[in-house]
Amino acid sequence: MSIAATETRPAAWRLLIGYVLPHRWALLTGALLSLVTGATGLLLPLVAKGLIDNLSHDRAITGALLAMSALVVANAALGGLGSYVLRRTAESVVLGARRALSSYLLRLRITAVDRSEPGDLMARITSDTTLLREVTTDSLVGLGTGGLTLVATVVMMGLVDPVLLGVTLAVIAGAGTVLGVIVPRINRASRRAQDAVGVMGASLERILGALRTVKASGAEHREERTLHEAAEESWRQSVRAAKWSAAAGNTAGLAMQIAFITVLAVGGARVATGAIEVGTLVAFLLYVFYLMSPIQQVVGAITQYQTGAAALARIQEALSLPSEPAARPAPLPTPGAEPAALAFDDVRFRYADDLPYVHHGVSFAVPARGMTAFVGPSGAGKTTVFSLIERFYDPESGTISLDGRPLADWELPRLRSAIGYVEQDAPVLSGSLRDNLLLGNPDADEDALTRVVRTTRLDGLVARLPQGLETLVGHRGTKLSGGERQRVAIARALLRRPRLLLLDEATSQLDAVNEAALRDTVADVSRTTTVLVVAHRLSTVTMADRIVVMDAGRVRAVGTHRELVAADPLYAELAATQFLATAG
Ligand code: ADP
Ligand code: MG
């Protein structure tokens, strides 16, 4: 799914102005250098004329030759410098857009990410921003220099003969009408071409993320077709944009030819009636001729801008996705260092307005310290409890409070820094094992690291890996087993010294020996930290100080194992079947 155009957004060019404004002086310098380069080029014929006129004077020849050489060198140097400054500025504009987008996307609400394609968002940061380069150099500079020349020429034409100027402008206006039809088509086609690149990014991300499954399912051919279709759609639309751009260029060229003929006809008649001199007509025709190049330049800039505008619109859509609340100006109280107490009070929640409720009024309270286990059938809403505690989502009604304060009262990064969260299926990021462990606390000292590696029983793995903690793991390194990944995730969370530890089926893939060891570690931790676990092993559940039984988005019962076996038939059944079956 691509991002829906939900609200009216300001015009794309405003966004561009925002990116270009910081570089206005550099851009102006580059444009000026280009103008001066053009001017030095224009001087050359004059010097050449001087040379030819003075062929009999040796000194004059030497002088003229030196002047010409100087002009040629200056022309090359200024031209080179000008294009370097312009290109550099354009790259800086791209950099600015990429920085803004990257920062923004890291702060997106999870809801926004749930509803968009990561591959498409990636294309917006990488591919769409690239298109701003041409917009900056070609469009803005073209429009600036071409526009200036155009105005100057038109003024000169007006001075020579206002009537003929009127004739010329009428022809240009006619061409403008035609361009008014063509230009939006370029924009539309460019937009579709960029969208197709986004679709391609999304498909690639989907396929490469599950390449093993794709291969095992023998689905390469179908996936290949999807990719090719997206690539072809981008090609088709780009070709269409090229066609309309060419049409626009030709319309401008044709208009100038028509203007030339019309001026010749009208001007001829005016000469015949004695309204103007022949010289005036010749001068005017020369100006019509001069007008050609700036008009082409301006039309080129406008058509070029359409591609950029399409990219800008896509960037703007990404920037309008909901992001997490920014840090508030007034510092909020930071969660203290003590273990946290947590409470859900009548929490109702659904992932989106068009999806069914996942929590229908969930309430429970967890005191500071100790272990609370969440059990219940799959889909009961256990993982969602943790997502809400992390504020990946906010409840629709009801309150979640930490230390007696609603979560919204805590500064978001501070709130999260108090929590250690081991996700269900926590991923290993590509990088070294050390990077992975220190992700949540880069400043942890070596002692703490060694201790956590030992308590999570990763020491055996570290000893086995060729470069120990520095071994690359994840995408471009050694693949870890499911159990190893889980232990890395637990170690990562413990290194944060959390006040609230959330473990979501964090030991489900461990073997019996490792599981028993980790259980002891967690029991240890729960003496000084509030621990919430989603568990399915009886051994873990019976250890908990209290058990919250969830079913279909509701809390059915809270109690100890003994109490619940007697009081809650669902729990008794779970305990008898699911837990026992998987208990290590
Ligand atoms: P549990 O962890 O108890 O198995 P979850 O909290 O993961 O259950 O899910 C509860 C319900 O919410 C399920 O029906 C699931 O399909 C749905 N759900 C979970 N995550 C999302 C999501 N990101 N978007 C939409 N629905 C979701
Ligand atoms: Mg779950």
TrEMBL record:
It is a multi-pass membrane protein. Keywords: ATP-binding, Membrane, Nucleotide-binding, Transmembrane, Transmembrane helix. The chain crosses the membrane at residues 25-48, 60-86, 163-183, 244-265, 271-292. InterPro entries: AAA+_ATPase, ABC1_TM_dom, ABC1_TM_sf, ABC_transporter-like_ATP-bd, ABC_transporter-like_CS, P-loop_NTPase, Type_1_exporter. Residues 342-577 form the ABC transporter domain. It is found in: Cell membrane. One of its GO terms (molecular function) is ATP binding. It comes from the Bacteria. Residues 28-307 form the ABC transmembrane type-1 domain. CDD domains: ABC_6TM_LmrA_like. This is ABC transporter ATP-binding protein. It comes from Streptomyces gilvifuscus. Pfam families: ABC_membrane, ABC_tran.
